[in-house]
């Protein structure tokens, strides 16, 4: 009788906790992509990134292309002609709703690889002081708001925690801050959302330290390790080959890497782009290590890259690069089966300090105290593109993190399409699920049991 009474008290205490969690349904028909070993998977099928960088107007314009629905509809038609499955966007407005734009992509079978930073909300690598100052709660609020704005969409492929922050041989001191942001993003996703979303870094291919970057972002405790490593590689300049470009040696360099690797930008313009690298990238020479890549870039910008010209009237005209790329993609199928991926692996050994790697040890800055509340309360509405910026705002980190301190207090479901957290509302797609933080239920249960004991 007493046991029944205790269980009744416990049940009555926990039930409201579940009732207060509003289940959300994921948006989209595409299956969420997850990480298994050193590869991406969409369900049980190996997923290879076949895509383009998409930021019409370039970085200087800093507009959100997902909000220009007419332009997006126009471009989605071209994405289909190219035969791609992914686009990368560098800048979005995290104060806006993206349901329509993401649905256009989802209906076309296209995933989004999204940079979480914007020009005004990013790490300032000018020097050590600006790096430390820019890693603050206002910055993280924007990063977390971007996560909230997109986590519901099944066709959100992944988040980049940074892009080419380290772009010289002598500014590797930014590495601990990039890694701290990756850790914070992973923890926020686990605490606030109910599916695992891959988070990693897009590196510049700096010859003196690119291997150190790959090792560093995959070393240490699990909470701080990236879910993938990507880098911008322009070393294949046609006419070239798998061996002449040096890509064969890069495969050997990363053959024991335990996380997915892909090219976050590629497409040298030194000579005519014949896109010979497409056949190599999706061949079994590379797929045991690489998971595809993103061509740079969709629209022709002042830098000379681009696949389509945009006229003053908004109409676009594909150029010869576009035609050759579409032909190369059409002629290149993904390998059958799993592509020779590695099902398991271990963390890398952290690189030692050197002239080319100015990182003294494995320590990371702790999350700024003022940002810790976001883990429980959510980030709220993002500042968008009109915000004041974060470089010299808020409160920076005040201490060094304890290894493992970024571990989540709840575990999301890998590949689950549902989201419980701070999103923009319901949608269509996978069935919803409930996910209550374990520590929260533990506290309720303990309190209920203590009360039950007092009854006797």
TrEMBL record:
Top-rank EC class of the record's enzyme: transferase
Keyword Oxidoreductase: no
Enzyme Commission no: 2.4.1.-
Domain of life: Eukaryota
GO CC aspect terms: plasma membrane; side of membrane
GO biological process: fungal-type cell wall (1->3)-beta-D-glucan biosynthetic process; fungal-type cell wall organization
Membrane topology summary: Lipid-anchor; GPI-anchor
GO MF terms, alphabetically ordered: 1,3-beta-glucanosyltransferase activity
Matching SUPFAM superfamilies: (Trans)glycosidases
Signal sequence, renumbered to the chain: 1-19
Composition bias, Gly residues: 418-428
Bias type Basic and acidic residues, positions: 350-363
Pfam families tied to this protein: Glyco_hydro_72 (PF03198)
Compartments (UniProt record): Cell membrane
Gene3D superfamilies for this protein: Glycosidases
Residue spans of biased composition, Low complexity class: 396-417
Keywords: Glycoprotein, GPI-anchor, Lipoprotein, Membrane, Signal, Transferase
Family: Belongs to the glycosyl hydrolase 72 family.
Function field: Splits internally a 1,3-beta-glucan molecule and transfers the newly generated reducing end (the donor) to the non-reducing end of another 1,3-beta-glucan molecule (the acceptor) forming a 1,3-beta linkage, resulting in the elongation of 1,3-beta-glucan chains in the cell wall.
This protein's name: 1,3-beta-glucanosyltransferase
Source organism of the structure: Clathrospora elynae
């Amino acid at each position: 009788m007493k046991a029944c009474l205790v269980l009744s008290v416990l049940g009555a205490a926990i039930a409201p906790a579940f009732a207060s969690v509003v289940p959300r349904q994921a948006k989209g028909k595409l299956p969420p992509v997850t990480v298994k070993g050193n590869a991406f998977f969409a369900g049980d099928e190996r997923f290879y990134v076949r895509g383009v960088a998409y930021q019409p107007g370039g970085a200087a314009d800093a507009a959100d292309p997902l909000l220009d629905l007419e332009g997006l509809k126009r471009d989605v038609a071209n994405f289909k002609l190219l035969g791609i499955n992914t686009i990368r966007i560098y800048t979005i407005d995290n104060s806006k709703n993206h349901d329509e734009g993401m649905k256009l992509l989802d209906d076309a079978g296209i995933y989004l690889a999204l940079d979480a930073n914007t020009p005004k909300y990013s790490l300032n690598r000018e020097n050590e002081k600006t790096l430390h100052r820019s890693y603050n709660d206002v910055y993280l609020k924007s990063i977390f708001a971007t996560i909230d704005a997109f986590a519901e969409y099944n066709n959100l492929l992944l988040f980049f925690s940074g892009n080419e922050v380290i772009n010289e041989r002598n500014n590797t001191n930014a590495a601990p801050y990039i890694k701290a942001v990756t850790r914070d993003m992973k923890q926020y996703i686990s605490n606030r959302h109910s599916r695992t979303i891959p988070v990693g870094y897009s590196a510049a291919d700096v010859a003196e330290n690119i291997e150190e970057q790959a090792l560093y972002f995959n070393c240490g405790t699990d909470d701080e390790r990236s879910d993938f490593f990507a880098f911008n590689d322009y070393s294949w300049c046609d006419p070239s080959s798998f061996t002449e470009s040096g890509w064969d040696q890069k495969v050997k360099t990363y053959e024991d890497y335990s996380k997915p690797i892909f090219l976050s930008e590629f497409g040298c313009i030194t000579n005519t782009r014949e896109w010979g690298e497409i056949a190599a990238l999706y061949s079994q020479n590379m797929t045991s290590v690489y998971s595809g890549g993103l061509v740079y870039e969709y629209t022709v910008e002042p830098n000379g890259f681009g696949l389509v010209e945009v006229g003053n009237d908004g109409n676009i005209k594909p150029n010869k690069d576009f035609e050759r790329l579409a032909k190369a993609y059409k002629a290149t199928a993904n390998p059958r089966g799993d592509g020779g991926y590695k099902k398991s692996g271990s963390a890398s050994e952290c690189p030692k300090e050197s002239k080319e790697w100015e990182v003294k040890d494995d320590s990371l800055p702790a999350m700024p105290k003022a940002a810790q509340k976001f883990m429980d309360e959510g980030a709220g509405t993002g500042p968008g593109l009109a915000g004041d910026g974060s470089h010299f705002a808020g409160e920076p980190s005040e201490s060094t993190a304890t290894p493992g301190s970024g571990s989540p207090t709840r575990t999301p479901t890998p590949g689950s399409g549902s989201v419980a957290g701070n999103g923009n509302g319901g949608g269509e797609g996978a069935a919803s699920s409930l996910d209550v933080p374990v520590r929260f239920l533990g506290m309720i249960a303990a309190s209920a049991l203590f009360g039950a004991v007092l009854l006797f």
